[in-house]
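All the exercises in this workshop are built on plain-text protein records. The record below serves as our worked example for the rest of this section.
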Amino acid sequence: MSTLEIKGLHVEIEGKEILKGVDLTLNTNEIHAVMGPNGTGKSTLASAIMGHPKYEVTAGTVTLDGEDVLEMEVDERAQAGLFLAMQYPSEISGVTNADFLRSAINAKREEGEEISLMKFIRELDSKMEVLEMDPDMAQRYLNEGFSGGEKKRNEILQLMMLKPKFAILDEIDSGLDIDALKVVSKGVNEMRGEGFGCLIITHYQRLLNYITPDKVHVMMQGRVVKSGGPELAQKLEAEGYDWVKEELGIEDETVGQEA
């Protein structure tokens, strides 16, 4: 079992404190969901874990199996087993999906142990079939000209091919119709198991109808203020966040805009 542990994490952006002491522990074989109103720091948490230079960690720790993640470069975090499916994936002209994925897989392997071309093609074809992706997408430039739904499927394709220890899915359901949502959820559920943990950042219960989380956390004012099981997400969907604020005596304010 691997463990991703966040303790007392404080993060600033351009001098404004966004995260104000986040505590969260995620093990492999677990799927956690983080929910909360806009501007409470959910996407900031994802970016800080992965080392986005815009976000300054001012206090706290992030460790992966006891190793200090905050001391790692971004590529080292990926090689250690962390993966971020971004809310707005970048387009890269001149680099095909297939070339990008094979290079990313080999970057995690020792010299002389690169994945063979035939094994790579078999695995890529298999994963694209699960995600109901057009085989031609393998030879298209990375995300270039992709629809929003195609970009999100492509993020899950990368997840399935790279097989990280922990994936952070930042609003992977944003902009998806119901059919695409089901397909993306199927890909995440295929990864579920002892060697994989997942942190899902979402606003809506609808994604969690297809990916049942083990734990649900509510973020407000830059902290995790409440945790529970899948029933917590259902109550949030039915009643909104006001009951949490009332229960915990939280004033109706946000900490800033999420990036």
